[in-house]
Amino acid sequence: MKNKQHFPRVSRDPISPENLHVPRLIRNPDCVEDDAWFGRHTKCNYSFDVPILRESSRFAAYSNKHFRIFREKNIVYVFDNSNNGTFVDGNVIGKGKMLPLANNAVLSLAEERHKVFVFIDLMADEQSNLPKELSEKYMITKKIGVGVCGEVKLAFERATCKKVALKTINKNDFPASVGTATRSAEREIQILQKIDHPCLIKTKDFFQTDDSYYIVLELMEGGELYDRVKSKQQIKEPIAKLYFYQMLKAVEYLHNNGIIHRDLKPENVLLSSHDDVCVIKITDFNQSKILEESALMRTLCGTPTYLAPEVFTDAVTVGYSRAVDAWSLGVVLFVCSLPLSLAGYPPFYPDARIGLSVSDQITQGIYTFIPSKWDGISDDAKDVVKKLLRVDPNVRLTIEEALQHPWLMDEAMKETAEGIMYPKDSRDADGTADSGDATVASTGKRSREDEEEQQPTKR
C-alpha cells in the first residue's frame, strides 16, 4: 500500500441555501400559542418564507401549511397537513392525521433524514432540580451517556439554540471514597478549563452546588471511536491515519501543557460527525494528571488493556512519565486497524492458549500481527505500532517522533486534518458544521426545541 492517499478537499465555499437550517431563520422562536401553524405561507405562525430559504431546493418540498402543533387538555399533538410528509421519530404521520408528541420527539419534514424540530416537555424534565443559573441558560433533555463519574444529557443553549452536552457529577455517588471521587472530578474540571485545542473536548460552562458539579461540554454528534471500530465496516488506513494524526496533535498539546491523560482508548475518542472525514476529540480526563514539580507519577490508573508496562512494574517504586500515553496510542492504532466484530483483536487480551495474563503480556511486550488480519496494512503503519509498543519507555517512540514518522509525513492527509481542525468559517470551529443549532418553541409549560436540519450523511 502506498504511503500517500487522496483525501477529499475541505470546502471553502461561501454559505449556501442548501446548508442552512430552517429553524435558525424563523423569527420569534418562543411559541406561546396553544395552536400554531408551520409552513411556507407567510400567514403561518412560523413561516419558512425567508429570502435565502426560497433559494433552497428543499423549499418546494415544504407545504404552504405543512404541519400544526396544538394542545388539548395538556396533551400536545402534531397534525400533518403536508403533501410530502411530516415524520415523528422517523415514522410518517400521514396527511390529515395527527399524533401526540412525547418528550424528546424528533420532527422531520419531507424526508425522514431532514430533522428539523425536537419537542421537549418541560413538565417531564428535571429543570427544577438544576441550579437556577444553569436552567436559565440551558434547556436539559434526554440522557445520552453515562460514565464512572456521572451521566451526560443532551442540552440546548437557550440564547443560541445550539446543542451541548451536560455532564453531571453527583458528589454523593461515591460514599466509600468521597474524597477520591471529589478530587477526580475537580481534577477533570481543572483540566477542562485549562485546555484549548481543536482535538480536545471543550468546556463551555461550569456550575456547582453542594451536591453536584455540572460541566457543559461541546456535543460530538459522531459518537465514540470505539463504536466505529467495532462496527462491521473496517476503518480504512487513510482514515485511521487521519484520526491518529489528530490524536497525536491533541496529546502533544496536553504534554506541552504538563498534562498526561493516562486513559487513552477508543471509548475516550469522540467523533464530530458520522462522516469518515471528521474532527476527533479526546475526552474523559478523570484519570489525567497535571504535572507539577515531579515528572513522574506513582498511581496505578487507567484501563488495563491500554496500560503501559511501566504502570504495572514501576508505579509504586520508580513511577512513570508521559511515555504511558505514547504506549496507549500504539494500542489504539493497533485496534483501529481492524474491525473488532470481524475477528479483529487487541494486541493484549485474555487467552488461555497464550498462558499469560494481560499484564504479563504487556510487561513482556508479547503481541502478534496475524498475517491474515493485517494483509493490506502498510509496513509504515505497522512500524509506528511496533515503535510505540516498545516495553522500555526510554526507547519508545515519543509523540513528537511519531509525528515525524514517514507514515504520518503525508501532506494530503495533513492538509485535510488542518482544514477540518482549523476551518476558515468560524461558525464551524468546533468541527461539527453547525449541526447543533436549534429553535425553541413552547406552548404553555411545554416547549418544542428545534434540532438540526441534518444533511444526508455519506458513509
Low-confidence stretches: 1-6, 8-20, 426-459
Total helical elements? 12
- Basic shape: elongated
Distance between the termini: 22 Å
Rg calculated over all Cα atoms: 25 Å
CATH topology of the largest domain: Transferase(Phosphotransferase), domain 1
Strands across the major sheet, in which order? 6-5-8-9-20-19
Question: Class of the largest domain in CATH?
Answer: Mainly Alpha
Total number of domains? 3
Task: Give a verbal description of the structure.
The chain has a 6-stranded antiparallel sheet with strand order 6-5-8-9-20-19, with no helix packed on it. It has a 5-stranded mixed sheet with strand order 2-1-3-4-7, with no helix packed on it. The protein has helices at 51-54, 132-137, 178-194, 225-229, 237-256, 309-313, 323-336, 358-364, 371-374, 379-388, 399-403, 411-421; strands at 35-39, 46-47, 67-72, 75-80, 86-88, 91-92, 98-100, 105-109, 115-120, 138-147, 150-157, 163-170, 203-208, 212-218, 259-260, 269-271, 280-282, 289-290, 440-443, 446-449. It contains 12 helices and 20 strands. It folds into 3 domains: 17-120 and 436-449, Sandwich (Tumour Suppressor Smad4), CATH 2.60.200; 127-220, Phosphorylase Kinase, domain 1 (2-Layer Sandwich), CATH 3.30.200.20; 225-421, Orthogonal Bundle (Transferase(Phosphotransferase), domain 1), CATH 1.10.510.10. The longest helix has 20 residues, at 237-256. Helix 5 (237-256) runs antiparallel to helix 7 (323-336), helix 5 packs across helix 12 (411-421) and helix 7 runs antiparallel to helix 10 (379-388). A hairpin with a 2-residue loop joins strand 3 and strand 4. It is of the alpha+beta class. Helices cover 24% and strands 21% of the residues. Mean pLDDT is 77; it is low at 1-6, 8-20 and 426-459.
